[in-house]
Amino acid sequence: MPAIAASFGCGLLFGLGLLISGMTDPLRVLGFLDVLGHWDPTLAFVMGGAGAVTTAGYALARRRGAPLLAVRSQWPASRGIDASLIAGAVVFGTGWGLAGVCPGPALVNLATLTPRAITFVAAMVVGMLACDAWRRAPGIAAAPAAVAADTADG
User: Fold this and answer.
1) Are 95 and 121 in contact (CB under 8 A)?
2) What letters, b where the CB count within 10 A reaches 16 and e where it falls short, cover 97-111?
3) Which of 5, 31, 58, 86 is deepest in the core (most CB within 10 A)?
4) What is the pTM of this model?
5) CA dist., res. 69 & res. 115, Å (int)
């Protein structure tokens, strides 16, 4: 139960951060991507702040002996850049550029119950299910998953 409460709290904090920063507004995100027009630098500041918090969080997590709500840390098994990562980044970036939202803000926007938000989240879920089905297909190598490792291994 503590892990569920912590997950809920983290999700709530993340969603509030998206709302306060304006990152749930597709026009703001598209304004950031419009570098030749009326460029909006807000997203750059949000990403910079997120990067600083993440860097500090990872540094603290790596120094801990064990996580608070799990037996072991789960660090990524792979650090390499492969075709699957590049293809995923291209698909993600294309969708983000066309719609002005990515999964986090889309889920926050789902609370509005607007047709645009519902359609985006439905398409996102279909895409995730299709990806899972594709990876399970015979002859398709699965992407590396996170591996359980002691923090000393990372």
Assistant:
1) no
2) eebbbbeebbbbbee
3) 31
4) 0.73
5) 37
What CA–CA distance (Å, rounded) separates 65 from 3?
18
Strand partners, 149: 73
Q: Is 29 exposed, middle or buried (0-12, 13-18, 19+ CB in 10 A)?
A: buried
What is the rounded (10 degree) CA torsion for 106, 109, 112, 115?
-40
If we measure between CA atoms, which residue out of 106, 142, 111, 137 comes closest to residue 124?
106
Give the residue from 49, 51, 57 showing the smallest Cα distance to 21: 49
Q: In tens digits, what is the pLDDT along the chain, a chain of 154 residues?
A: 888 999 999 999 999 999 999 999 999 999 999 999 999 999 999 999 999 999 999 899 888 878 888 888 888 888 889 998 899 899 999 988 999 998 999 999 999 999 999 999 999 999 999 989 988 988 766 555 544 444 444 4
Here the tokens at position 7 are 């997950």
Residue type, 4: I
Domain boundaries, the chain: 2-149
